[in-house]
Specification:
CATH architecture of one domain: 3-Layer(aba) Sandwich
Number of strands: 14
CATH superfamily of one domain: NAD(P)-binding Rossmann-like Domain
Radius of gyration: 19 Å
Bound molecules: UDP-4-deoxy-4-formamido-beta-L-arabinopyranose
CATH class of one domain: Alpha Beta
Strand order of the largest sheet: 3-2-1-4-5-6-11
Number of helices: 11
Order of helices and strands: EHEHEHEHHEHEEHEEEHEEHEEHH
Structural class: alpha/beta
């Protein structure tokens, strides 16, 4: 079976492509390489022995995207492509709405036109905003704090409406918690363009000496050590979650939102300490004021993924820290 992967040269996309190939799928990747590199394909081939088909394509270019659907038939689409920087989305909301929403509408229109009715969508725990309680399950209130999160929620709503209108359509909306880590080979990893916002890339920059120290945003939260709690999940566990969801989407219709998390919460300081210990390196850090919009604690109730897909996260925080560091040191 052939899977079309939008944004498949990106961080989560590339790790998912590796797992798809290892599970026997044929894969076509399309990507505009805005936040990724074509060399990722060489590394996927090194890891799996198979080079996925690749199309350089921007999902805003309808005709170029239609050519991809004309060239081959796809049994499903996994949709990663989209801008994802929270801060940038606040500065440039129209760019985010145009790219993420219009791009997705182009994709969905062509899927319908070419009778491709199975979709896995890369959603995010950001749709929960600041949850009232943890662990967060899929029935929690949805509320977004920024344009990036609102694009994810709007696309979820579009997919729910599409699956009501077209009973032949199936969409699984995967709500990622905090993806970290890298492939243990060190060949593919998180490779953020510009200044990363997320915690793990900043830990790595501090460990490498690329920044003087990591700023920990807030040490006065009502948590066990005063710093925020998140559900960090290894990117390979996340990738396996997509393969498991694919098996589900071939057998079921309609839309369903599913958390992909470990179900365990970790504070910022606990992640820093784990990283220092497993990699035997210091992460220079100091405390700074709280970051606007941060929730004190967000971690998943991951039981629905287990129930529907038979999937659960298996890799540990030490695996995440070890693989993230190896990826950062080997990546070029
Ligand atoms: C984690 C914790 C920060 C940087 C974001 C997006 C979400 C998803 C995952 C895409 C928080 C603290 C961070 C730093 C710090 N991305 N931190 N110093 O905010 O949970 O979620 O990434 O889907 O949409 O919102 O992740 O890594 O930015 O922050 O102290 O330099 O680390 O305050 O407590 P977040 P994060």
């Amino acid at each position: 079976m052939r899977i079309l992967v939008s944004g498949g040269a990106g961080f989560i996309g590339s790790h998912t492509v590796v797992r798809l190939i290892e599970n026997g799928y044929d894969v076509t990747v399309f990507d505009n390489l805005y936040n990724s590199k074509i060399t990722v394909l060489d590394k996927i081939e090194k890891i799996t022995g198979v080079r996925p088909d690749f199309r350089l394509c921007d999902m805003l270019d309808y005709d170029s995207l239609e050519n991809i659907f004309k060239e081959d038939h796809y049994d499903a689409v996994i949709h990663f492509a989209g801008y994802k920087a929270v801060g940038e989305s606040i500065e440039k909301p129209l760019m985010y709405y145009d790219n993420n929403i219009r791009g997705t509408l182009n994709l969905l229109e062509l899927m319908s036109k070419y009778n491709v009715k199975n979709l896995i969508f890369s959603s995010s725990a950001t749709v929960y905003g600041i949850p009232d309680k943890c662990p967060v399950d899929e029935t929690a209130k949805l509320f977004c704090l920024n344009p990036y999160g609102r694009t994810k929620l709007m696309i979820e709503e579009i997919l729910r409406d599409l699956c009501i209108a077209d009973k032949d359509f199936a969409a699984v909306l995967l709500r990622y918690f905090n993806p970290v880590g890298a492939h243990p080979s060190g060949l593919i990893a998180e490779d953020p363009n510009g200044i990363p916002n997320n915690l793990m890339p900043r830990i790595i920059q501090a460990a490498k000496g690329e920044i003087k120290e990591l700023k920990v945003f807030g040490d006065d939260y009502e948590t066990r050590d005063g710093t925020c709690i998140r559900d960090y999940i290894h990117v390979l566990d996340l990738a396996d979650g997509h393969v498991a969801a694919l098996n589900y989407v071939f057998k079921n219709r309609g839309s369903v939102a599913v958390n992909l998390g470990t179900g365990n919460g970790l504070t910022v300081l606990e992640l820093i300490n784990a990283f220092e210990k497993v990699n035997n390196i210091k992460v220079p850090h100091s405390f700074a004021p709280r970051r606007e919009g941060d929730s004190m604690s967000t971690y998943a109730d991951a039981s629905l993924a287990k129930k529907l897909f038979g999937w659960e996260a298996k890799l540990t925080v030490d695996d995440m820290c070890r693989d993230a560091w190896k990826g950062a040191l080997n990546y070029e």
